[in-house]
Amino acid sequence: MSTNTSSFIDPDLMKGVEVFRNILKKARAIIALTGAGVSAESGVPTFRGSGGLWRTYQATDLATPQAFRKDPVLVWQFYHYRRELVFSKSPNPAHEALARFEKECKSSGKQFTLITQNVDGLHQRAGSENVIELHGSLYKVRCTECNVISDNHNSPVCAGLAKETTSLDELPHCGRPGCGGLLRPHIVWFGESLEPEVIEKARKALDNCDCCLVVGTSSVVYPAAMFAPELARRLVPVAEFNIQTTPETGNFQFVFQGPAGETLPKVLNLNLST
């Protein structure tokens, strides 16, 4: 597949930008798939690779149901740290560009769906509304007994987690009458499957879309990694926005390389009604 690659290091806007803008103007249902690279530009760590340590623990080792069963206090302390860290961060120009673009789509009668692998809520804080969170949210909790999911934007999530050391009894528990079960972060951990209803919503959006933006994702975490390549095989125009190439870059029609906070605002700076 021929790929239009545009770099914003060069001050001249390359032809691929205008070609893609024309596609956006004609599209009726647009999807943006976002990953950790978007949040990284706000200073949110990805917790992957050599930098993925929290205290002396490999962060990915704590994000498992086995770790929670073994030491729920430790896992909750890790997620308390993550929540408080994100509370201190702000949406960046990439988040803001997508939120503005969604409003532009609405005013132009287009459908826009943002499917994210991120759990930090920065898209919503920027103003995005139609967001599908594939991997859950740091600001939702789920009861391990009754499975009820609820929002929790408290800082801290419970008083016990504000202390340096805490106990199981001081962790957040379900407030439903007759339950009182231990709450867990509503996050899809390693070894767990995505929620069927979330996958169904994402699939419906993917089936209906006629243009796709892939932003800040490494295209290696499944099932999200297969979404854009599937669209490309259906000849749906796909544009990748990333600081580096990914295993799927060659399958996409457009590639805008550089920080998403720089490339997205420039590419999406258009009036869809003209």
UniProtKB/TrEMBL annotation:
Catalytic residues, chain numbering: H135 (proton acceptor)
Compartmental location: Mitochondrion
GO MF terms held by the record: histone deacetylase activity, NAD-dependent; NAD+ binding; protein-malonyllysine demalonylase activity; protein-succinyllysine desuccinylase activity; zinc ion binding
Cofactor list: Zn(2+)
Domain Deacetylase sirtuin-type positions: 10-274
Notes concerning its domains: In contrast to class I sirtuins, class III sirtuins have only weak deacetylase activity. Difference in substrate specificity is probably due to a larger hydrophobic pocket with 2 residues (Tyr-79 and Arg-82) that bind to malonylated and succinylated substrates and define the specificity.
HAMAP family cross-referenced by the UniProt entry: Sirtuin_ClassIII (MF_01121)
The protein's name: NAD-dependent protein deacylase
Originating species: Varroa destructor (Honeybee mite)
